Amino acid sequence: MHRRGFLAAGLATVLGSVRAAAQMKMDGMPGMDMGGHTGHDMGAAPQGVAVLPEGEALRDLPRLANEAGTPGLFKARLTAESATARFAEGLDTPILGYNGTSPGPLIEAVEGDRIEITFANRIADEASTIHWHGMPVPADQDGNPTDPVATGTDRTYSFDLPEGSAGSYWYHPHPHGKTAEQVYRGLAGAFVVKPKADPIPAAYGDTVLVFTDLRLAADGTLPDSTMTDLMNGRVGDHVLVNGQKNPSLTVPFGTKRHFRFYNATNARFLRLSFDAAPMTIIGTDGGLLEAPVAADDILLSPAERLELIVSFDKPGTAVLRTLDYDRGWMGPGRANDAGLTLFTVKVSQTPAEPVPPLPDTLRPIARFGAPAVSRRFVFTETMAMNASGMEMGFLINGAAFDMKRIDVVAKAGQVELWEIVNKADMDHPFHVHGTQFQVVEHERDGKVSEPAYRAWKDTVNVARGETVRLLLRQDRPGPRMYHCHILEHEQLGMMGIVDVQA
Ligand code: C2O
Ligand code: CU
Ligand code: CU
Which residue in 92, 233, 298, 474 has its CB near the most CB atoms, within 10 A? Predict the structure, then answer.
């Protein structure tokens, strides 16, 4: 950790939380071992009390119905409101839902469609927005914190999905200072844009799996975040798949399934492996790769998505498990997250109908030309003691987010090289709004490597001590946010604004 002694004067305000400082004192900060990876969790709610049922049949996500009668138009309404979920037997959990559900309804549209979604904010006493994570939407339709939708009011988001924009996007709130909380209380949903001509055989299906992270107190409520949560990002006790714990699916052997994995957690890194079933990566955040890539395991950092083909070749059980991944942790309370079973596929003795093979090539991904501008973004963590406790800051180029400050001015249509330098002690998944980028290089300990494949992404993990270089171009003018997608870090300042000028 980079101890600077003092924080910028404005930082205390973005910390936004007297409660946080008070909580920190209660947790007994003096003497805590900042490097330790073991020990009791500071201030976490009682754990392991609520028991969640496992092994129920995987539910399909509810779909957002298209109310338009006109081809090429997708019109619907999304209401954010209090809802009740039943995660554990006999316990009602107050959550926030979109149209009453968490994850929110699956939105499926097709390239070329026009989207008109009316957002009704019915969250008591809180502003919200809907941000269309990863989607090429105009800046003023993108649910930025600068465009809040007040409680009790509606607003319509309208945008066109350009040709070539097929991909696995999602939607979530982005109000100033409340994003992390509204997301862990339940607001997040998948938005799939299908291509007009899909090279993936239809017989593989198309199954969205949204991973969320639940912490449930013994009385069934969602506890407030602690200081540990603010520092590391809130990691829950139960990883859910489409809102269920370890759901199951039965398939005939020989089945190939097309899955879209979404990491919609606030802060949990998911290194995953489907034992006894080979995985092939076919797409990333912004759609298909050029060609399929076989993978033994995958790392999905918060907000990342992957499209996979999984082959269930042998009768028996294939289990999606978490593997160990050390993403850096401040203070005690790091859970041992390896070996969790997220999803169980029962492969029956019945053979599947023969299906067409996966094509060798999927689509071209054009390389960017030479960048006109290079920029450098340095991520740091700061911590300082003062009279009221410990204050932390998560900074980009030494500054905490300020809604009124433009950090970078860019030109629409111009290729830029962004260098994201992580000088902090935790991994930080970097995300930028409004476009898809291509990672060109990783550098760690002086060693430079290229990614295994070219891909469209809007979120990339930047490991501790790592530098990631990416090429991007913003085609639409307006202000765009870029930030760490550990939502508590975003909230504590690790965000900036690039103003794209026409
Ligand atoms: Cu998922 Cu600022 O976004
Ligand atoms: Cu986003
Ligand atoms: Cu971060």
Answer: 233
DSSP-assigned letters across all residues of 177-237: TTHHHHHHTT--EEEEEE-SS--S-GGG--EEEEEEEE---TTS--PPP-HHHHHH----S
The pair of structure tokens assigned to 109 is 């549209």
Q: Which two tokens stand for residue 442?
A: 């990783």
Give backbone dihedrals phi and psi of 232, rounded to 5 degrees, phi first.
-100, -10
- Per-residue pLDDT tens over the stretch 27-63: 433 333 333 333 334 444 444 468 899 999 999 999 9
- Tell me the H-state helices in 16-70: 18-26
| Residue 49: predicted pLDDT | 67
What is the rounded distance in angstroms from the CA atom of residue 88 to the CA atom of residue 21?
A: 32
Please name each of the domains of the chain with its CATH number: 202-351 (2.60.40.420)
386-416 confidence digits (pLDDT tens) = 777 777 889 999 999 999 999 999 999 999 9
The residue nearest atom 3 of ligand 1, judged by CA position, is: 133
SS3 269: coil
Question: Considering the entire predicted model, what is its pTM?
Answer: 0.91
Which residue owns the Cα nearest ligand 1 atom 1? Answer: 133
- CB of 174 within 6 A of ligand 1: the answer is yes
